């Protein structure tokens, strides 16, 4: 069979050596400029980038990664893909990955630690360049550098336990304290609590913020009005109906995530109770429900973007010169719906 000749376009594609020759530098210097190496002088950097633009040079990222043993892929594991929060987080990760020529392999653990361990092992076996994980539990032995054979790792939404790793968190404590504080400012003194499992970092921190807001106001929550360990809309609705049906029912409820808030809204609508609601996570149509609703809101995409950039930084640094472990906290904003108060 006759050997196929390269197309004219392929034959004419500029190489790194072409860029080096035009700029009057070595190919190694061109490589350093393209990697943003701080050792390159500004004058040399401008000369190389000018040559890149003039020649229309574009690195073959796939070939480059294959030469250094990379796959060009990163893994992302979340706990509940049906929750819009994780969809937005995934979009943020994808935005950064795409900008760096990386593809994203997405997995859903369904809040199950065993499933998470299996998916982590699968991703490691697939030799992804790194992974971002929203942990399903507080046991992270399978995420240690030894277990991952040094693969770059970033945790999102929940911090590492028993290991050092980059992580991106939300201000869970501050958001819960601020949202509950707004209810107290509105005159509520019986504020119920609908929370996810206390073993989860978010559940523990948001409960701590709820309690701290009461202490700051010289109050103490009524233990009879606290429900923890709720997992979805249905369990939150049942808990809210039970709370709001009591003789000394709460006049407001604080919910630790959007699914629990949805359950509380259903309960309020079913009972026709004049109850104010506060919760974490903004959601679509919150502004048209006509209910007094206070939300601790934040940019879920930004969590993904920050986690993605941390992972890219660690991948690019390589195992010989890893950056220091970093923790980033995404701020919250309190939003009021269905009320004239701001």
TrEMBL record:
Molecular function per GO: DNA binding
Keywords, ordered alphabetically: DNA-binding, Transcription, Transcription regulation
SUPFAM superfamilies reported for this sequence: lambda repressor-like DNA-binding domains, Periplasmic binding protein-like I
Gene3D superfamilies on file: 3.40.50.2300, lambda repressor-like DNA-binding domains
One Pfam match: Peripla_BP_1
Record's keyword annotation contains Transcription: yes
Annotated SMART domains: HTH_LACI
PROSITE patterns: HTH_LACI_1, HTH_LACI_2
Record-annotated HTH lacI-type domain positions: 14-68
Keyword presence, Transcription: yes
Full protein name: LacI family DNA-binding transcriptional regulator
